[in-house]
């Protein structure tokens, strides 16, 4: 049964909470990267003074990595902050076509990982197709990246219609998000899988939330789903065309 979007859920922070998140990122991630660069710059000076050119060069590569990380964090934060300035170009879009556009963008990844995606959706949405395709690309890509170590990725996408709402369900058989972290899933810079093979800085789902909210919808995790991760995206009926 489709339920009304809850405007007071923890994963929809107000502007003040969002500013707190950005301040935390600046004080932790950005400041940390600067400190890393400063420390290794001092070490390079010492090694050069001692004539250890090769050691100094090895430290330079570490500085390059920290600078790249810093640049990525800042770029992602700027892109996220600029989302509120976006002018949506809404058109009546077939939901299935939008999903297939996202799947086409992920075709190489899907093939490389032997992933399977099942689609059982219907209806149209009045949306900015490019923005909503970004949302689907990120959610599907996450489902593939964070796959269960003993299972090939399998994703099921379905839709549920009521008189007032349209809900899109995207569920996978991956590693999921621990229950204690689920209320933070759509916050900025929240990463729940920190192994080296997982890249990114935790901005993607926050961007998805903001894009969904720009369209008057909500995005939530189904905390009762235990076989992976299930994301529910709900739009009011005004954003659906029969």
TrEMBL record:
Its EC number is 2.7.13.3. The keyword ATP-binding applies. GO terms for molecular function: ATP binding; phosphorelay response regulator activity; phosphorelay sensor kinase activity; protein kinase activator activity. Residues 25-239 form the Histidine kinase domain. GO terms for biological process: osmosensory signaling via phosphorelay pathway. It catalyses: ATP + protein L-histidine = ADP + protein N-phospho-L-histidine. Gene3D superfamilies: 1.10.287.130, Histidine kinase-like ATPase, C-terminal domain. InterPro entries: BphY/WalK/GraS-like, HATPase_C_sf, HATPase_dom, His_kinase_dom, HisK_dim/P_sf, Sig_transdc_His_kin-like_C. PROSITE patterns: HIS_KIN. SUPFAM superfamilies: ATPase domain of HSP90 chaperone/DNA topoisomerase II/histidine kinase (SSF55874), Homodimeric domain of signal transducing histidine kinase (SSF47384). Keywords: ATP-binding, Kinase, Nucleotide-binding, Transferase, Two-component regulatory system. It is an enzyme of class 2 (transferase). Signal peptide: none annotated. PANTHER family: SENSOR HISTIDINE KINASE GLRK, TWO-COMPONENT HISTIDINE KINASE. This is histidine kinase.
């Amino acid at each position: 049964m489709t339920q009304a979007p809850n405007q007071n859920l923890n994963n929809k922070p107000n502007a003040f909470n969002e500013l707190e998140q950005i301040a935390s990122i600046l004080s932790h991630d950005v400041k940390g990267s600067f400190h890393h660069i400063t420390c290794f710059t001092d070490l390079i000076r010492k090694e050069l003074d001692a004539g250890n050119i090769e050691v100094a060069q090895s430290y330079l590569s570490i500085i390059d990595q920290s600078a790249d990380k810093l640049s990525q964090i800042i770029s992602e934060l700027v892109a996220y902050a600029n989302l509120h300035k976006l002018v949506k170009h809404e058109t009546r879009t077939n939901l299935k076509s939008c999903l297939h556009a996202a799947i086409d963008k992920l075709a190489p990844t899907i093939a490389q990982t032997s992933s399977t995606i099942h689609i059982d959706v219907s209806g149209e949405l009045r949306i900015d197709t490019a923005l909503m395709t970004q949302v689907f690309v990120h959610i599907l890509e996450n489902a593939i990246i964070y796959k269960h170590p003993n299972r090939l990725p399998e994703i099921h996408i379905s839709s549920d219609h009521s008189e007032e709402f349209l809900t899109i369900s995207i569920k996978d058989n991956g590693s999921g998000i621990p229950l204690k972290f689920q209320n933070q899933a759509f916050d900025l810079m929240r990463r729940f899988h920190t192994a080296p093979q997982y890249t990114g800085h935790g901005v993607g789902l926050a961007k998805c939330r903001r894009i969904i909210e720009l369209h008057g919808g909500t995005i939530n995790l189904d905390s009762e789903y235990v076989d992976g991760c299930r994301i529910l995206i709900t739009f009011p009926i005004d954003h659906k065309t029969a």
